[in-house]
Amino acid sequence: MNDVVVDSSAILAYLQSESGMDLVESAVERSGDIIVASINFAEVVSKLVDRGAGETSIRSGLAALDLVVHPLDEALAYAAGLLRASTRSAGLSLGDRACLALGMQLRLPVLTADRSWETLGLPVEIRAIR
Fold first, then answer.
1. What CATH number has the domain bearing residue 65?
2. What is the CB-side half-sphere exposure of residue 61 using CA atoms within 13 A?
3. Burial of 121 (0-12, 13-18, 19+ CB in 10 A)
4. Distance (Å, whole) CA 20 – CA 13
């Protein structure tokens, strides 16, 4: 099985049938665990609320993905914070950096809709869905 870390953008593309959802769906079908940092999970929930989704539909949609939510513990918080220096020019958010840090920490590829991550030169495999 091939575990993978997913960014908020990849989850949202899948849930909302956006461009790139087929690549996320393929990863879900062939992967072992689909792992998301808790901060990215909260970001997905927030975006869905902003788009008018109710709690029941949010919970059922996310449950269907069978995500493994990884806590933002002290080690991951440090790693995400320390990425600020090397990613500042790309304007990455805290959630973006948490996702990348989790991929690096677990030594797993990261799925995202943000192609700019491929240019960062970080020690993690980036799989852009668009």
1. 3.40.50.1010
2. 18
3. exposed
4. 6
